[in-house]
Amino acid sequence: MNAADVALTVDGIPVTVAAGASILDAIAQAEIETPTLCFLQTLTPVNACRVCVVELEGARVLVPACARRAEAGMKIRTDSERVRHSRKMVLEFLASTVDISTAPAMQRYCAQYGAQPQRYGAESAKVAQPVKIDNALYVRDYAKCILCYKCVEACGTDAQNTFAIAVAGRGFDAHISTEYDVPLPDSACVYCGNCIGVCPTGALMFSSEYELRARNEWDEAEQSQTDTICSYCGVGCTLTLHVAENEIVKVTSPIENEVTSGHLCIKGRFGFSYVQNRPEEES
Hints:
Layout: E1 6-10, E2 13-17, H1 23-29, E3 53-56, E4 63-64, E5 75-77, H2 81-97, H3 104-112, E6 138-140, H4 150-155, E7 165-168, E8 175-178, H5 194-198, E9 204-206, H6 207-214, E10 224-229, E11 238-244, E12 247-252, H7 266-270, H8 273-276
Parallel strand pairs: 1-5
Antiparallel strand pairs: 1-2, 3-4, 3-5, 6-9, 7-8, 10-11, 11-12
């Protein structure tokens, strides 16, 4: 054990992590699954969704595992009745206000914790916004947005440094917005699509995926995924091509890839149409 290491227990399991590690890191070290929505290992934790809260012995309130640093001697409980109740309530609040039909992880968490958002009734307030289709590359459907801040972080210092979007408004009126709420083509957006890559709910989506879903033709089970290297420059970004019926329907990058950390530029993420411009076979 290094002198700088931190020893603590998670659900009674002794764990040692490096100094500066989070409670979430310690939980992972103990091989315990904890739900997260706003957290991504390549982004700065913003502690927005509160579904990763855990019980810390001696603490008055539940603490966010993603943002709280691990300290020596901590005794963490990840699945107490208090923790489960809190997670259930957070999931119910979120799912009762937004459309989670394209958020499989959130659907799984709701089932896991017995969340029943429908109990708030059909008249509960909704984040109702029209779908924004103002460019040819991706669609913004903020009726599905849970304000996890991931897109804002990816657009900012954590990845792109473009700062084209931020959270505007307060309380229930808070929403993701471009500067002065201008259309995307008039904003600072460079169409890297890194916001799409980190969105957990489908609020941001490839136009190709959106159109296929609208025609009820989107089926991930029937898609193949192939890794390749982007052909546009010499950086060597790894691309994962999602292919359906011999057509590329979207492009992602592995988050664990040391070159990209899941992020791409506009060419890597959207510049695949030339692959599919095949000359018609001679009859």
